[in-house]
């Protein structure tokens, strides 16, 4: 037998570590992953010539079938359904499930670009119209029903868009007053919008029906020269999830600090991790990502620090790292490679790295 | 289609652990999953043009949409996307100086004017996708016997310049690539676009391993013709019957005498009576018979065939898109008849 390379060792070990592992290479790095529906996913690639290529693929059957039937399935391919290009460089996208509509916040655009993901008889994702607003390249949050929050990260204005009629249905004037702070939004329940101050990690919760502030949550401890991001367990509940928990809020800093808070008891931090296991972030990347697992297990995942995805158990006060997906790091890669996005699909994770790789995987529990 | 470059292999008594690396074109993991007639298509074949521009850019999307809606194409199992052609491959045919200028946007106003396009970075992308598509189609044809692109046929481009809506000569690049890499020893380019393939003729005038056959209208652009290995000039206004008579006279003999390893077929529909630029009077039925004749004669001899859609100019984009799918209909018929 030939001597094993490091790559071969990793693959050999992967049989024990993973219940599912599919690895793909694309010709461009994937910037965003957004599921369209149960069976398809949209991949937005890194921009080239001031626009992003967008492709909609059907998911491999090995990923979508019940895990106990996965061995019966041969299909492990993404199959291209449609594709197109954005009008400008994409900042963020949200897909309105069940409508084949993609909303994109783009660079230097006041408002949103609307794209239609076609049905069977066409192959083109095309730009249909622009929703104009005073918000320049806004950050987006969707409540999975009929509301999209658009936030001007610098001016702290929030506009609520009705995603059925595409009309503005409300505005929120925030109480953020630090001049230098940037805020990013995320819904924590269908009518509660969290606005995270990226400098301090504090989160203000606003009721979108009354446009009033309901509560405020703080991160575990302030930390200088870091930026914060958030996610909520509400976002991970869906028709493909087992979990109905809509009460958890996760905060992640660029220094690797993770906090899980309960929105019902905002003064108490449920679980925390100091981030000592994570390499220091490369300066070139934007704020990293935190996601809650949609299953019943108290798990969350983080990415954006290096080529790895980290999974944590937050069932106790001291959060525990229980798995590291290090498959994106190949012997030919460098330590400078960074994961660009990751999302949960049932108990599996789809992750992308700037070394052109996209993986679908489920670790062995 | 994007195939897993790794998933747990079937154990055959001994474990195999191999990571299949993607190469520029050689994406074997994609090829193996293509079933039925391979169709090469990329949504990047289209770029925005100024309103009222004469070139019917949107036809490439229409071609694909009609193929999907008519059931010719099953997206999941037939369509394969090309990569953009690399400069190193384009330089097999084009000068480095021209490629540097074209890729970077340094072509002069006059150089751009004769192409019919103003330079944009998106134009470069679409040209690279289109050329990559033709190249991939030829490689697929060598593998499967028959393959079709939903674009291609930019035969007016010369090594150092573009002209007549053509910026890179995709037919020439593909042919030269096949020869240089040893995939084919002899390549026949059958160009039935209404315009002479002058760029292709010039590029291969001294190369015996590539035979250029162009049947075109003598009164159409370019008015200063180059010399193909075989030029058949048709008089203005001829219809299906006379056209087929000429084709029948020449094509079988060329195939017989040159005996190529592959035929690259430019199935331009600008020979149609309704074409804005072409001066011939063919019908849809005549085009279908033409394409069927070419494909049958080629495939019957066991020669692989790669098709591109070539030229077509019509105000009615839907009609034009549908017309360009005639070659795909013919190809599917031959595919089924021959049990490829």
Please explain how this structure is put together.
The complex is a heterodimer of chains A (365) and B (340). Chain A is mostly beta strands and 365 residues long. In chain A, 5% of the residues lie in helices and 48% in strands. Chain A is built from 3 helices and 28 strands. Chain A has helices spanning 6-17, 61-64, 233-236, and strands spanning 18-25, 30-37, 40-45, 53-58, 79-85, 90-96, 101-106, 110-116, 126-136, 139-142, 147-151, 157-162, 167-173, 183-189, 192-197, 203-207, 212-217, 228-232, 248-253, 258-262, 265-273, 289-292, 299-303, 309-313, 320-325, 339-345, 348-353, 357-363. In chain A, the strands form 7 sheets. Chain A has a 4-stranded antiparallel sheet. In chain A, a hairpin with a 4-residue loop joins strand 16 (203-207) and strand 17. Chain B is an alpha/beta fold and 340 residues long. Chain B has a single domain (2-337), classed as Histone deacetylase domain (Arginase, Chain A), CATH 3.40.800.20. Chain B has 13 helices and 9 strands. Chain B has helices spanning 28-31, 59-69, 75-78, 87-90, 96-104, 109-115, 121-144, 170-180, 198-203, 240-258, 284-300, 317-324, 326-337, and strands spanning 6-7, 39-40, 79-80, 146-149, 187-191, 210-217, 230-234, 262-266, 305-308. Chain B has an 8-stranded parallel sheet with strand order 3-2-4-9-8-5-6-7, with helices on both faces. In chain B, helix 2 (59-69) crosses helix 12 (317-324). The relative contact order of chain B is 0.14. At the A-B interface, helix 1, strand 1, strand 4 and strand 5 of A face strand 1, helix 2, helix 3 and helix 7 of B. Chain A: It comes from Gryllus longicercus. Chain A: This is WD repeat-containing protein 73. Chain B: Residues 53-315 form the Histone deacetylase domain. Chain B: This is Histone deacetylase domain-containing protein. Chain B: One of its GO terms (biological process) is epigenetic regulation of gene expression. Chain B: InterPro entries: HDAC_classIV, HDACs, His_deacetylse_dom, His_deacetylse_dom_sf, Ureohydrolase_dom_sf.
């Amino acid at each position: 037998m030939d001597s094993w390379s490091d790559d071969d060792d990793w693959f050999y070990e992967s049989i024990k570590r993973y219940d599912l592992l599919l690895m793909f290479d694309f010709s461009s790095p994937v910037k965003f992953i957004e599921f369209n529906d149960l069976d398809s996913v949209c991949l937005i690639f890194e921009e080239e010539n001031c626009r992003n290529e967008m492709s909609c693929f059907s998911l491999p059957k090995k990923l979508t079938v019940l895990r106990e039937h996965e061995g019966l399935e041969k299909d492990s391919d993404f199959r291209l359904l449609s594709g197109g290009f954005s009008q400008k460089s994409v900042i963020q996208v949200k897909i309105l499930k069940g409508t084949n509509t993609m909303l994109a916040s783009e660079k230097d655009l006041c408002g949103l670009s609307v794209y239609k993901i076609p049905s069977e008889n066409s192959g083109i994702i095309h730009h249909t119209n622009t929703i104009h607003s005073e918000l320049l390249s806004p950050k987006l949050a969707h409540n999975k029903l009929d509301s999209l929050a658009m936030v001007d990260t610098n001016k702290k204005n929030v506009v609520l868009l009705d995603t059925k009629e595409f009309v503005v249905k409300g505005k929120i004037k925030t109480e953020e007053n630090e001049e230098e702070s940037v805020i990013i939004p995320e819904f924590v329940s269908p009518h509660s919008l969290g606005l995270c101050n990226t400098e301090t990690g504090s989160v203000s919760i606003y009721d979108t029906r009354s446009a009033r502030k309901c509560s405020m949550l703080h991160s575990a401890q302030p930390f200088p020269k870091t930026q914060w991001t958030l996610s909520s367990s509400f976002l991970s509940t869906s028709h493909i999830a087992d979990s109905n928990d809509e009460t958890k809020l996760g905060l992640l800093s660029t220094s690797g600090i993770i906090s899980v808070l309960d929105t019902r008891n905002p003064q108490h931090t449920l679980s925390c991790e100091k981030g000592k296991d994570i390499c220091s972030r490369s300066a070139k990347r934007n704020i990293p990502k935190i996601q809650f697992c949609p299953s019943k297990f108290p798990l969350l995942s983080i990415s954006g620090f290096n080529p790895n995805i980290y999974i944590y158990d937050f069932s106790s006060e001291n959060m525990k790292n229980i798995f590291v997906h290090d498959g994106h790091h190949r012997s030919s890669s460098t330590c400078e490679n960074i994961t660009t996005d990751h999302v949960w699909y049932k108990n599996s994770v789809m992750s992308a790295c700037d070394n052109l790789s996209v993986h679908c995987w489920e670790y062995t529990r | 289609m994007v195939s897993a470059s790794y998933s747990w292999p079937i154990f055959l008594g001994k474990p195999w652990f191999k990571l299949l690396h993607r190469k520029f074109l050689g994406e074997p993991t994609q090829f193996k999953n293509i079933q039925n007639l391979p169709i090469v298509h990329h949504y990047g074949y289209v770029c925005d043009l100024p309103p009222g521009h004469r070139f019917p850019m949107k036809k490439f999307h229409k071609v694909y949409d009609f193929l999907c809606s008519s059931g010719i194409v099953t997206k999941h199992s037939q369509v394969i996307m090309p990569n953009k052609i690399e400069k190193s491959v384009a330089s097999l045919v084009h000068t480095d100086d021209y490629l540097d200028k074209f890729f970077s946007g340094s072509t002069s106003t006059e150089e751009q004017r004769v192409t019919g396009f103003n330079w944009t970075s998106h134009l470069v992308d679409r040209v690279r996708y289109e050329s990559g598509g033709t190249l991939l189609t030829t490689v697929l044809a060598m593998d499967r016997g028959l393959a079709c692109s939903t674009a291609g046929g930019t035969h007016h481009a010369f090594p150092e310049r573009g002209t007549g809506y053509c910026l890179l000569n995709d037919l020439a690049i593909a042919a030269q690539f096949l020869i240089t890499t040893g995939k084919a020893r002899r390549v026949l380019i059958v160009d039935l676009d209404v315009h002479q393939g002058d760029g292709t003729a010039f590029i291969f005038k001294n190369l015996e391993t590539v035979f250029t056959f162009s049947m075109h209208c003598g009164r159409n652009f370019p008015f200063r013709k180059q010399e193909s290995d075989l030029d058949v000039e048709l008089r203005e206004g001829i219809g299906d019957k006379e056209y087929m008579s000429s084709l029948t006279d020449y094509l079988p003999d060329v195939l017989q005498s040159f005996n190529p390893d592959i035929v690259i077929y430019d199935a331009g529909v600008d020979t149609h009576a309704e074409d804005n630029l072409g001066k011939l009077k063919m019908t849809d039925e005549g085009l279908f018979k033409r394409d069927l004749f070419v494909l049958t004669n080629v495939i019957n001899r066991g020669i692989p065939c790669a098709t591109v859609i070539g030229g077509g100019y019509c105000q009615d984009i839907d009609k034009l898109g549908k017309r360009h799918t005639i070659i795909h209909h013919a190809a599917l018929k031959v595919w089924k008849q021959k049990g490829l």
